[in-house]
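= Paired protein data =
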Amino acid sequence: FMRCQLSRLQKGHATDEWFQLSSHIPLKGIEPGSLRVRARYSMEKIMPEEEYSEFKELILQKELHVVYALSHVCGQDRTLLAGILLKIFLHEKLESLLLRTLNDREISMEDEATTLFRATTLASTLME
């Protein structure tokens, strides 16, 4: 077994550490070894669905204003945001609206066809 003090981890930061393994029973002449842990700590508050209903309605609005705003502030968490948004839109059977709208916007903002979807955007992350 191994122990990791979760209080040492900072929200949003990645860790890459080696932890010594130990055993409850004595191991004669055997070194238990170590375990490398690469992790990123994030915290999610899970609440009843009705707590999210108004926010979900905002996210699902046809114009996707909230989705665009979230994509501008998500930074390194773009993959996490894309996964969450896709789950929400899939659940409501609106995934084609999300993908079509974001991709159409991406196309309309690009002048050169050769550079389409080259940037790492929410649209390109969702398409992966």
Residues 61 and 96 are 14 Å apart (CA to CA). DSSP finds five helices and two strands in the chain. The longest helix spans residues 95-109.
